[in-house]
Each structure stands twice: as structure tokens, then as C-alpha cells.
What we know:
Helix content is 42%, strand content 8%. It has 237 residues and is α/β, with parallel strands linked by helices.
Amino acid sequence: MDHILPTATTSDEERQGADCAILPVGSFEQHGDYLPLITDTVVASVISRELASAYGLFRLPPVTISCSHEHSKWRGTVSLSSSTLHSLIDDIYLSVTRAGLTSLVVLNGHGGNYILANVVQEGNAEGKRMALFPSGADWTDARQSAKLATSNHEDMHAGELETSILLHTHPELVRDGYQAADWIADDRRHLLTTGMSEYTQSGVIGRPSLASAEKGKALLASLVESFASVLEILRKA
């Protein structure tokens, strides 16, 4: 069974002897009528699961609520302040390094967590070993590898990419209706001011009708390959 949460014991982790921890950061926010509020948490967790398995990382449980303020008009969305999320990541880093690990990868599953880039940049400037994954370029490469029809910008939320990953890893979480839920809003220049509700009635921005389990599998495989360079840099630091 593929668990969203890690199930390792202390003995398991002692035998593995990982030097790098990976922390999935999701969200609790609307994802249209067919994906659950935990979608970003599931996506971040399954990517972390794949990376931990491939590279022998210490897999942490996910942060399940983050900065989802742009979705606040929809019932069910819950957010943290950016300062709280910053403090949380700092505390987790200190805890895992005190326990003997040397680095932390923050695996971000929600595009609205802008603060995470600052957390990682500031941390590395202070002598910590941290990375943020996936980057925009990693997602672009994964889309191309999986032959997605949409771009990162076009397929912003609950679209082809997220639906594909859930169809591959946890299809029981995908409800019917995604096949007819496409919504395009490419010009979103005032998003930070207005929130998403000015650009979509359904909460969707993207083309979920194009999603498939096969694409989800290929997306994950590409991300696993891209991660090798991140780990190489952390271990050289």
C-alpha cells in the first residue's frame, strides 16, 4: 500500500542513515468540485515518497495548511500567515539537523507559498543547507517529458497536471466531473490584489479534461530524475 504519510520506525531510519530530510508542504484549499481540499498535500507527499525511495532520504510528514489566501473566497480553504510558515520551516530545519541530518529539502506542492523561496534563500545565506523543489524549470521539464498539452502558466490550478498525478497515485480521490471542468484565464495580472475568484467561477484554472494516469506516472518519473542535481549540490555544500 502506498501511504501518503511515512510509516518508517526509528529502527528503519537508523538502518537507512539518511543525511538529508525531505519535507512536503501542501495546503488545505479548494480544488474545484472534483479534487479534494488536500490535493496539494497529496501531490507534495507522493513526490516526496518517490524521492525518498529513490535517494534514501528521511521522509517527513507533510505540512498540511499553508498560505492559501488567494483561495479564501471558497468554503473549506484554511491558511497560515507567511510568517508562521517561515517559522515552522525554520523550526523543522533546526530539529532535523540537531538529530544529525545535514540538510533539508522543502518539497512545495502549492504555488501560493511564495515565502518558501525566501526561507530557503535566507537559510542558505546563514549557513544552512536547504533546497526548494521542484522549481518552475523542473515542472516545465516534467510537463514536456509527460507530453502535457498545457504550460505551467495556463494550467495553474486543479488542471491537467494535478489531476494526472492523483489519477496515477490516488484515483480514489478524484471525483467525476473533471472531464468537463476546463477553465482558461491566462491574464491574471491582478491576482495578488483580487484573489482567484476574479478569474474563475469554479476555482479551476487549467485543463483537467486532458489528465490521465499515464501522464501522472511520467510526471513523477521526470521529477525523480531532476532531483539528482539538487541532492548533489546539497552534499557538496
